[in-house]
Design brief:
- By secondary structure, the protein is mainly α.
- Among the domains are: 1-32 and 264-329, no CATH class; 212-262, no CATH class.
- It is built from 14 helices and no strands.
- Helix 3 (34-58) packs parallel to helix 5 and helix 3 (34-58) crosses helix 8 (170-191).
């Protein structure tokens, strides 16, 4: 979330003559951007699904139909918010085509819907499916680029699947989400027995080593294939390179936690608020656009960005201390989805 805010402010605030600095920043930091966000969303989605499935098996008040309805209601509400967000941007920039731009919220909403049938497939199938999707995507985009702006079937297909390649088109970024569910399943298998400590040898064998090896392979392939395209935003080799970086960073951080180098009991430290209020921060940070648009330079932009990040962090901490989850759009969507799902279930049982 911090990278997203920093990246957007860098793009918004730099003068046109200084945009070379943004290009350098994006080439270095982009692997921990929207691809990483979708990867972590996949991890979170499958962990939530597995724990709720377990709850549905033993609970009389929360069955499998309630689970399904709650899940799709949550995806539906995120989809509605994403389209409202896109509509707002379209009105601001006087371009109605933006209503179906693949901003990250729209990609997450569609990913949540698409992943449902894949929850019941094996981890190996999802890995093969996700990687194959990138090859299919490359074939499709190469073909459909010739029909951009045309009022025919292929022109419509391009608009639906790829409108604005600079953003996060579903066929390009769904793979990050899918691989995230695989990692989430591995972690669920490791920790689902409620043990506070997992055997370190088992942790290394089933998660750490496979993640690091897979990450290295993906990075090497991304770097070698059509070098140096791995540094160029949204290219075919960039996808592999980025996923490799994400796997290694995630494995490294979780490994540090496992050996006790990270104190996860201090849950709400400074950066944690950006995660806790991620949905809210994503929507509200767009208001920062109007502060210093096209007016800063590489030598002074970091002073302004650092100050803004600190102000946001301390503001979120104060908000959490006062309102807790009531300020979290993500939490409110979850409560609303569960409430409606239970209401639907109760009505069916009553009838």
């Amino acid at each position: 979330m911090v990278h997203m805010i920093v990246g957007h402010m860098t793009e918004w605030y730099l003068t046109q003559e200084s945009m070379w600095f943004f290009d350098i920043y994006r080439a270095i930091a982009d692997p921990i951007g929207s691809g990483a966000f979708l990867f972590l969303s996949g991890v979170s989605a499958v962990l939530s699904y597995r724990s709720r499935t377990k709850k549905a098996e033993i609970s009389k008040s929360y069955g499998k139909k309630t689970l399904r309805n709650e899940y799709f209601l949550r995806a539906f509400f995120i989809l509605i918010i994403s389209l409202l967000y896109n509509t707002f941007v379209a009105v601001m920039f006087h371009d109605l085509s933006i209503i179906w731009h693949w901003f990250i919220l729209l990609t997450i909403a569609i990913s949540l819907i698409m992943i449902w049938p894949l929850f019941k497939t094996s981890k190996l199938f999802r890995i093969c499916f996700g990687i194959s999707l990138w090859f299919l995507n490359q074939i499709l985009i190469t073909f459909l680029l010739g029909y951009v702006g045309q009022n025919n079937l292929f022109g419509v297909m391009y608009y639906v699947l790829y409108n604005n390649l600079e953003l996060d088109p579903i066929l390009s970024f769904f793979t990050f989400f899918v691989i995230g569910t695989v990692i989430g399943d591995v972690l669920y298998d490791l920790y689902s027995d409620d043990n506070k400590k997992v055997n370190r040898e088992v942790f290394k064998k089933k998660f750490l080593i496979p993640s690091l090896i897979s990450g290295v392979i993906l990075i090497v392939f991304g770097v070698i294939f059509q070098f140096p395209n791995f540094l160029h935003h949204r290219t075919f080799s960039w996808f592999f390179y980025s996923l490799g970086i994400e796997l290694i960073i995630f494995a490294f951080i979780l490994g540090m936690e496992e050996i006790g180098m990270l104190n996860t009991q201090k849950r709400y430290r400074f950066l944690s608020y950006f995660s806790y209020y991620s949905f809210t921060v994503y929507l509200l940070h767009n208001l920062l656009y109007f502060l210093f648009v096209d007016s800063l330079y590489p030598f002074n932009i970091w002073i302004y960005i650092s100050a803004i990040i600190l102000i946001i962090g301390f503001a979120l901490r104060s908000i959490h201390n006062k309102w807790g989850s009531n300020f979290s759009i993500k939490a409110q969507i979850g409560r609303l989805s569960l409430g409606i799902a239970k209401l639907i279930d109760n009505r069916k049982n009553f009838n």
